[in-house]
Structure formats: structure tokens, C-alpha cells
Amino acid sequence: MAMEEEQTPPELRYLSGLGNTSFTTPRARNLRTWLYRIKPSVTHEPFYPRNPTNERLVGEFDRTTTVATPTQLRWRPADVPLHPGLDFIDGLYTVCGAGSSCLRHGYAIHMYAANKPMDGCSLCNADGDFLIVPQQGRLFITTECGRLLVSPGEIVVIPQGLRFAVDLPDGPSRGYVSEIFGAHFQLPDLGPIGANGLASPRDFLSPTAWFEQEHHPGYTIVHKYGGELFSATQDFSPFNVVAWHGNYVPYKYDLSKFCPFNTVLLDHGDPSVNTVLTAPTDKPGVALLDFVIFPPRWLVAENTFRPPYYHRNCMSEFMGLIYGMYEAKADGFLPGGASLHSCMTPHGPDTKTYEATISRAAANEPSRLSGTLAFMFESWLIPRVCPWALDSPCRDLDYYQCWIGLKSHFSPPAAAVDDENE
Ligand SMILES: O=C(O)Cc1cc(O)ccc1O
Ligand SMILES: [Fe+2]
After folding, report:
1. Of 44, 83, 245, 268, which one is the catalytic site residue?
2. Is the preceding omega at residue 52 within 30 degrees of 0, hence cis?
3. Are the C-beta atoms of residues 377 and 291 closer than 8 Å to each other?
4. Catalytic annotation present for 268
5. Structural domains of the chain ordered from first start
6. What is the per-residue pLDDT across 97-135, written as a single tens digit (0 to 9) for each?
7. What is the ipTM for the molecules in this complex?
8. Which residues have CB under 6 Å of ligand 1?
9. What is the DSSP letter of 198?
10. Residue 64: left (phi > 0), alpha (psi -120 to 50), or beta?
11. CA terminus-to-terminus distance, the chain
């Protein structure tokens, strides 16, 4: 500490720490940042419940707030703007989630549709880390560590407790957000892939310090705490950090930098090979939340059904589409839309995709999947769904129909028929 204070220029009066691991967390996992501020964050009026609140935000997933359903769910994209004058805070709505922000175990999946910059206010999410996936419209995000311009095709992680404000340089905007309670995102281990591949640490970009110091009467700090919103006023901007150092910081990542691996001979690889970031549970290899992408790539497997296999398993899969078409759905899954296939709920390619795949003469030729970017938030914890998501006019109530036409292509081998007739 002594050294840091010596290095602090004389006009900087306040040093504040932001940490998100216990002091004694092992060094490799310890997260903390020192912020050199013009005025400390503590200088504000008391917190009050925010009025109006945002009733479509959930932080505790139980029977009083949400519904359990094993049904395959799909939503068409929401129109933006939903209402005139929605900023990122009011445009955010929870779709599903599991666990509890207060008990620090679980996650929430939100979407947003916003058309107004956050003006004279910032958001501090005391509940968890946000991983934001813009789908339409860039986000210009001012944080206590500096500013980041995030375009569709990029993602941004805002760590728990860091104040930030979202401006919308392109106007009406929408996208997806996953929020994790009690864990942080990290790069997946690469196992036998080796030292290179998938997302590379050098491509994760954090901002440099940026500050404003004008008097700002009535500035509002909105605090998300236990899934509920509180607000407090102060007479200065929280973006008054003139320098910082540490590893508890926001970062963005351009998904086109991802180096995908895939099968080069036969069989369909599991989607875990496309994990960009993972938030672990304390069970080895079991994710609280994996962020997985399905990027453009070559498909070269031989004698293999190349689209995703039909399956059900212990993980629950929320999917979104940033642009293009997803390889397993010929129609109905649109950019800005979403789907949810929960634990042990069967799903897979729709009838059109299946029929088109098996009738393609050159099925063994290399083919390139281009102009597409889908993603999945995958979790071991079983999600409960918000009532407004189930009742939404965007919900595709006929989703199940996309598989109803799948017919048997099995014809018993001649010998088996003969045996039966004997
Ligand atoms: O269900 C999905 O579309 C996602 C998915 C893709 C894939 O290639 C393999 C498994 C899987 O769950
Ligand atoms: Fe799946």
C-alpha cells in the first residue's frame, strides 16, 4: 500500500478498493481493483426503493415469482422500442433463472429492449456479474473503470458492484444478458486442445480510466440488490476514477476472434468445444453457466448427420441468435428471438432441417456455415420461467409443431423380416 500511495499524484485524494473475492481466496482466483477517485462513492443520500421500480426483474427464483415448466419454449424477437422512453434499466426483463442472488448461488437470464440512454444515472448490480450480448444496436457503456463501445457480435462483462451507464448510439437496441450469482466467468481449460484455441486471453479488452468532474446535482445511483431496485442521489458523477489497477474489471470480447475447433472426420462434437467463457460450480466440470457460441465454420465430417443431434440431458439450454440462421432450425428461430430447452426436455433439429440434411446428395462434401452467429447460455441448475415470458405475445405457442412431422425412416433389414415371418 505504501508504494501505491507514494505513486498517487497529489491532486488525488481518495483511494477506494473494489474486491469480489474473500481476502484469502487463492492468488490465482483473487479479484480486486484499486480505484483512484476524485470523491469517494460513499458520499450520497440514503437508498430508497426506486420509484418506479422494474417489476419484471427477478433475483429470487421460487414458486412465488416464477413457474417450473419442462415445455420446449421459443420466442419471436421483441419489437424495439417496447414503450416510448425505456432506458437499459427499465428495458431489462428477466426471462428465467435459478437459485437466489441473496444466497449467492444461481443465475438469471434477462433480455433487454431499450431506446433511451441512461441519463443522469448509473446502475450498480450488487447481485452478480452481467454478461451482455447485444443483438441490435451498439452499447456505449461508461463504467467506473472507463468506457467501452460494444457492437453486436461482441460481448461485454460488467462485474458485480461496478457502476455503469448505458448509452445507445444507434437508438433502439436489444439483446440478451446472463447474470451469475456467487461466481465469475473464466476461460475454459483447453485440455487436449493444448495451449491455443477457442478464446484467447489477449483478445479480452478492458478500458483505460476516464473521468468527469463537473458538479452534477441530482445524479442518481440505481442499486440492484436482491433483484430489487433502490436509488440514492448525490451531487457528482460516479465516473470520477482518474486511474485504476487490478484484475476486477469490465471487459469486452469480439466473438469473431474465437478460434473454433470441430470434428474433422466423423461424429458431431459436443457444444462444450465452443465454450467462450464458463462460470464454474464447486463440482469439477459442472457449469453454473457456460457461454457457448455457434460461429461460422467449415463442416467436414463424413457419414455423419452434421446438424446437432437429437438429445436431452441434465443441462438446461437457453439459446439466442445474434444474426443469420441457426443450423438446427430452418425457420421460427430468428435473430433477437430465444429458445429454452430445460433439463431432460428433448429437442433437436426441426423437421425441415432433418429432411433437407438427409436428402442432400453431397452430404459428405465440405460445406461452410456462413453468416450465422447463435449462442447458448447453458446451466446445470434448472431454470424457472417468469410468468410474463410465458404469457408474452412473442411466445411461439406452436413451437412443438416443428418436430411433429418427423417420420420414421427405419426399414428393418431383410433378414429380420424373414425371421419374423418364419
Ligand atoms: O440444442 C442445441 O441446439 C444446442 C446444441 C448444439 C450442438 O451442436 C450439440 C448439442 C446441443 O445441445
Ligand atoms: Fe441442446
Report:
1. 268
2. yes
3. yes
4. yes
5. 43-238+249-255 (2.60.120.10), 258-398 (2.60.120.10)
6. 999 999 999 999 999 999 999 999 999 999 999 999 999
7. 0.99
8. 271, 308, 317, 328, 347, 376
9. B
10. alpha
11. 89
